[in-house]
Design a protein that fits this description.
The chain has two helices and four strands. The protein is of the alpha+beta class. The N and C termini lie far apart (40 Å).
Length: 88
């Protein structure tokens, strides 16, 4: 059985959250992120495409950067945040 795009996006986001921020990204955590986005409690946003938007949010006291699929209302991935003055 093939996985849906929604399931693949969630699995990818879950792996990247653990790898980059040490966050256990459960469905409950996902719903919390969606609530933060819908209530405009994010720190920064940038439209990348009509479907994908970048958000900087506070999650469990940690500043995280995510890509969000607006069509599926789904977190796609967690991106690293480059620190000021750091070229990496």
């Amino acid at each position: 059985m093939a996985w849906s795009k929604r399931a693949c996006e969630h699995l990818h986001a879950k792996n990247r959250a653990k790898e980059r921020y040490g966050i256990d990204f459960t469905r409950k955590k996902h719903d919390e992120v969606v609530c933060i986005i819908h209530s405009s409690k994010f720190l920064h946003t940038e439209e990348l495409t009509r479907r994908v938007r970048l958000y900087d949010i506070m999650l469990d006291g940690v500043l995280v950067r995510i890509l969000f699929d607006r069509k599926r209302q789904q977190v796609i991935t967690f991106l690293p945040i480059k620190e000021a003055g750091n070229d990496n």
